[in-house]
Specification:
Blueprint (H helix, E strand, L loop, with lengths): L11 E11 L2 E11 L2 H16 L6 E9 L7 H6 L4
Antiparallel strand pairs: 1-2, 1-3
Length: 85
């Protein structure tokens, strides 16, 4: 019987802030994501924003990516996934 290997990669919560251009307007955003590192958090966010709002990656500007401690995470799903209750 085959069993799935558990990943030893630790996941952290990140707060990603930025904006994107949609038509003539600029929309700001702040999003909490789970990723292994800052680069993965950026790629995941570019994927999500591009998919939901139909904007190209070059139209999305990331202003800040910061790692969040467990007590600063506000999204209950993300908090649960990184080990909070």
């Amino acid at each position: 019987m085959l069993t799935a290997k558990k990943s030893k990669t630790t996941k952290n919560a990140y707060m990603v802030s930025g904006n994107f251009k949609k038509g003539k307007n600029t929309q700001s955003f702040t999003k909490e994501v789970i990723a292994a590192n800052k680069q993965n958090a950026k790629e995941y966010l570019l994927s999500i924003i591009g998919s939901k709002h139909r904007v190209k990656r070059r139209e999305i500007t990331i202003i800040k990516i910061e790692e969040l401690s467990l007590d600063k995470v506000s999204d209950p799903i993300i908090k649960y996934q990184i080990g909070g209750k």
